[in-house]
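Summary for the steering committee. The consortium agreed at its last meeting that each partner would contribute one worked example illustrating the joint modelling workflow. Our contribution is presented below. We chose a case with several input lines so that the handling of multiple components could be demonstrated. No manual editing was applied between input and output; the record is shown as generated.
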Amino acid sequence: MIMYLAKRFLEMIPTLFGITLISFFIIHLAPGKPTDIFSELNPKITPEARERLEKLYNLDKPIMVQYGLWLKKIVKLDFGDSFSSDRRPVMQRIWDTKKPLIERRLFVTFMINLLSMIVIFLIAIPIGISSATHQLSLYDKITTTVVFVGFAMPSFWLALLLMILFGVYLHWLPISQLKSMNFDSLPLIGQIWDLFKHLLLPIFVSAFGGLAADSRFMRSSMLEVIRQDYVTVARAKGLPEKTVIYRHAFRNALLPIITLTGLSIGGLIGGSVIFENIFGIPGMGQLFYMSVMTRDYPMVMGILTIGAVLTLAGNLMADIGYMLADPRIRAK
Amino acid sequence: MEKIFCLLIVFLMGFSLVGCKGRPEATDGQSLVSITGEPAYGDALAEGSIGEPSVLIPMLAGDSASHEVAGLVFNGLVKYDTDLSIIGDLAESWDISRDGLVITFRLKKGIQWTDGVEFTAEDVMYGYKTIVDEKTPTAYSEDFKQVKKAEVIDRYTFRVTYEKPFAPALSTWGNLVVLPKHLLEGKDITKSELTRNPVGMGPYKLDKWISGQQLVLDSNKDYFEGRPYVDQFIYRIIPDRATMFLELQTGGVDMMDLTPLQYTKQTNTEYFRKNFQKFRYPQFVYTYMGFNLKHPFFQDRRVRQAIAYAIDKSEIVDVVLFGLGSPATGPFVPNTWPYNPNVKKYEFNPEKAKQLLREAGWVEKNGILEKDGRPFRFTILTNMGNALRMNTATIIQWRLAKVGIEVDIKALEWSTFVNEFIDKRRFEAVILGWQISPDPDQYDIWYSGKTKEKEFNFVSYNNPEVDALLEKGRRTFDIEERKKAYFRIQEILAEDQPYIFLYVPDATPIVHARFKGIKPSPIGITYNLPKWYVPKSLQRHRMVP
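What follows is the complete predicted structure of the assembly.
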């Protein structure tokens, strides 16, 4: 088993290398340069100044050389300095060790995704199970429709509608960002309550879109499991239906969800870009969007690499989870 | 299952108990705008911005968000008055030698950096040395490279000597070059702590900067022009405009820039009229259609004039900008001193256009004009992603088709556009914009010698009289003399039409009505931010010690 894990771990290294290589070339293929913000034809900014800045950023070198320079740093876990005019290290912008945890972008994104994943589990799994046990009933049809509406609805649109309803009309919830302006003056309990209010809509929006996949997988795998012989046996033993479903069928039906969770981490990070911008949440997704817009290559590469590592880690965790849950795999 | 739903409902209901301390709002019949009161200290102003500042040292910053915040923290030796004349800021006064080569600034005494150290001429010298240093990544060094010699005469006197008289020189001594020497000397400025935690002597000082969220600035109680009334300035970063507009309505934001749609439609309600004040003034930019004057079609001035007559500028302003702008007549902003209101205006007149084209030898064949067997067909290039320019091009295409000129439109990605088409002169016509600096010197754009690759006279405009006037305008400090030169330049440009000056868009900010003392001017509204106030009865935020 340890051999297997070690092998999986080693396999991740070339994958990661491949991801960074392709990412690097693709972001450089996109038109535009970091120095473009200086070049909206302002007569005060001369072409010489522009060229000097390009040289400073090594943008005058061939792309292979640029990638080489980047790679040379990255093996030492140095993500380089951001191209934005503050020239801060990429890592400091993502994970500023001098700031409290809640002001570090990676933490914010990670926390929101984790919470929304928990919400997805808490809602999608019961929905999946009950629509499997009540297959083709009215309840099944309604939940199916609801989760698919969530899946199909553009999250930015839903977000704006909810902001208008809860923020502008009802005044129940704040509209954007993570903290109120008077956050620092609140007592601890008030701060937690404040954070909670700010997080409610973002988490709801990101979870609502993710319900469909988990609940449908849960439903179909449950349907498969409850047709198995051992479930029939359990019923024949005279066990109550609840025990049959939750004790015997449920565990086995859960296996595909583990795989799905591992794979969905990448998607969640991608989704962060959208809702963090709409809600003005200072996470990695917002930073990513701003960096792409200003062609801040080191920053974009840094976030992509971290995202790739997280996704690969998610896959690895799924494998481990699978092994823990399924003795058949452990035996191999 | 049902349990979960019940829980959710209870959960949501719980929120109805959450109160929300609102800002003062207009009650029936009474508008906040009409309530007045004595100036008072207190309250906070939250401005919404889609971009986050990157660095708060002005000379290193390239984005407008950085400059806006840094502008509240740092001062310059001089600044622009509301009529664009130059007045002293940190400088008490200055002398310009008779030949215009030497400027001697006398600094105000007793001004302190917010850390308590006195501001002196050494700080200016340090700033100057830094900006001309090759190692400083700044885009603004050109103006300072004209300086032949800079010297500190005494603690409060700073003198610069120029190679040639350079009228825009005075205006360059703004906040780009005043830095606290005692904190920065001997350090790499790009790595300095001050890039994110600046020490200035301006009306506000940075209290804290929460990345991706907000910058909080406290008023500088010892500000040398008097303590600002509003205690806090909060710069909130909200990347999505729709979200920001919702924040405006719920009190999260007191001031923001509106889009044309928001300005004309969404804020056109009773609620907004009573609770907000909207402003509108020309921005310091203009959009134009420039011709490649080397191209055979456009060498004839009559053709360019004909195209000017064939285009309805006010139609473009109405459709593209929702009316929030004004037709441009030349390269200056209306209502500023260099602007000449009495130049030839090309009122929309397709008949006149056709007549001029006939005179120039173009005859109509099957609905399209021809000359020497060549149909009048050309391409307008513009940059991708700018919807305003694209829409403008489309309207021009339609208008020109009516006089028999066929136009294609091509949008190109910015770098490609500039490097491959503008710099190499591979274009027939372009739609682009210029930022206008408050100083009227436009030597780089119109001087006939500035036509080499990458230089800005890419339309290859050449008029000896304009050359002489440009030269004159930048060599004299006498504002009346300069005005004469630039007025004449505008007359000639209007006659020559190397560009068709299309429009000057308006800035359209909105501010909550509890803020009083805002005096709109040609340079905007924020120039007197320290003098804005909220009457005691309307104050909303209380400072928390």
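Residues 81 and 87 of chain B are 6 Å apart (CA to CA). The two ends of chain B are 49 Å apart (CA to CA).
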